[in-house]
Amino acid sequence: MIKKYLLIVSLCFASQFYAQKNESKIPDSLKNVNFDYLFDRIETSDTDTAKQQLYLQTFLIKAISEKNSEEIINGYKNYVHYSHSVLKLVYADSMIFAAKRTKRNDLIGASYLSKGIEYYAQKKHTDALDNYLSADAYISKTNDQYLIHKVKYNIAQIKYYLGYYQEAISLFNECIAYFKENNTRGYLNSIHSLGLCYNHIGNYGLCTDTNEKGILEGERLTNKEMNAYFNHSEGINQYFKNNYTIAIENIGRSLPAIKSKKDFANEAVGYFYIGKSYWSLKKPEVALSYFKKVDFIFKDKGYIRPDLLENYRLMILYYQSKNNLKIQLHYINRLLKADSIVLHKFKYLSSRITKEYDRKKILLEKQKIENALNKKKYNDIIFISIIALLFLSLLLIAYLYIRNKRLYRQKFKELMMKGESEIAVEPKTNTNRISEINQDTVNALLKQLEKFENDKKFLEKDLTAAKLTAAFGSNPKYLSKVIFHSRGKKFTDYINDLKVDYLIQLLKEDKMMRKFSNTALGEEVGFSSTQRFTNAFFARAGMPPTYFIQELQKEHSYSISNL
């Protein structure tokens, strides 16, 4: 509802400005100045809001009165950068509205990109990605290398955020190569993000090298804006190297600059790793004060990400050691709230999170503690029950992990033992007669299906029963019955299985295909979304596509080592 309201306000705002060609609102002293002058005054008037608003308004009205499309878009972009956060997205919509009137791919794409960047700044990552993809659809039709790499950089940020570190590393390296000669801030930002990726994949040495390179390059380019972020990154990296005191010093040194930029996300991450460092130094009381700061930012800004969930686990452990059930319950509730947000935002990481936090067990633990507080007795029994439940949860997680690995491995072996024809062809049920359909019609449809499979027409994207029926010159009811009777499955499962079987054979034969992301693999065989592809692959193969590819790589490596 709020989004709908903001869109209406945005369109009304844009229409109003387009209709407004009244130059009388521009002070006489500014009527003859150029856009560069106005933009410079906008940037240098941060401390005087009234003056800045005057320059913002003058810039936009001047652009509209002169019918200067690029400067109209820049006028709205200025508002996106310098207006109140509540209105930023409204102005972003006006910018897109103005850009679309030009019908220029570069301007439309850049406008969507600016809106996506604003969503990312507000930590609305799903909306950010939607706008980045819209931007890419337009910018990819141009030869504007700056915009192309700017999109790559922001897509890489989303991939890093979702945990696709190898894909993000590849994109950040491309951005470093381009921005090095073309944009200093983009160059330093890309180096910083690359270092974060190296940390997350456990290459702490390369992370340190990258952070040091970033600081040296900043000095060479006389731009030290990113120094705080390189120190912040290195502080976290030192935590993973078990250098806790150095970690505390580095992160602590970086936080004033990060706080001055109102970067609450990196502020929270910094507090968390300072807290973890003190925890590792056996100073839980000091650690707790930093964990509480992370919780405050979550409460105030709603910011949380998967690794920060441990913040609450450690707080729960601390109060459990103090036998303080009330505060323990409070932080269990905070953990559950944070967990629900993470599960919603991080669809791709939800399986990893549930291995660390078994939601059902936490809820059961919560209920046990609530009962203990209400009855004021049986504390010892409940404490033992909690420990037992946690122990059983760990056992259950370990059992499920091992069982799934075994099942996946067995399924993989079965797939590898099958040849192409065995994978592609399903056991047929009785095809002699379908009582309510003329046998000649059945036979004709069966021949068409066989040709459809042989010609691999099932790779078409967005293929529906209606489209295939029209192509066969039949009707949906007959086609569905013949498919179910002859192939033993419903239409959707039939098409999905054909796509997956074809892809499995491709992955076996083509090593380059194994380097594709799930999104690229899904598109290769005509799936309309990554989620549909991964669901279909799991349903058919009994394992995720990433596991299948990993096992294929292992088989390939083993074969080479035995040559």
Structure in words:
InterPro entries: HTH_AraC, TPR-like_helical_dom_sf, TPR_rpt. Residues 1-19 form the signal peptide. This is AraC family transcriptional regulator. With 563 residues, this protein is mainly alpha-helical. Helices cover 77% and strands 0% of the residues. The protein contains 28 helices and no strands.
Q: Indicate the CATH topology of the domain at 423-561.
A: Arc Repressor Mutant, subunit A
The radius of gyration over CA amounts to 29 Å
Note the beta-strand portion. under 5%
* Continuous helix count: 28
Coiled coil: 442-469
Keywords: Coiled coil, Membrane, Signal, Transmembrane, Transmembrane helix
GO molecular function, one term: sequence-specific DNA binding
Signal peptide: 1-19
Which structural traits does this protein have?
Arc Repressor Mutant, subunit A, TPR_rpt, 77% helix, transmembrane
Task: Give me the secondary-structure topology.
Elements: H1 2-19, H2 35-44, H3 49-65, H4 69-82, H5 85-102, H6 105-121, H7 125-139, H8 145-162, H9 165-179, H10 184-200, H11 204-220, H12 227-240, H13 244-260, H14 264-280, H15 284-301, H16 309-321, H17 325-345, H18 350-356, H19 359-375, H20 379-417, H21 420-424, H22 439-454, H23 465-472, H24 476-487, H25 491-509, H26 518-524, H27 530-541, H28 545-561
Domain HTH araC/xylS-type: 443-551
Coiled coil: 442-469
Protein name: AraC family transcriptional regulator
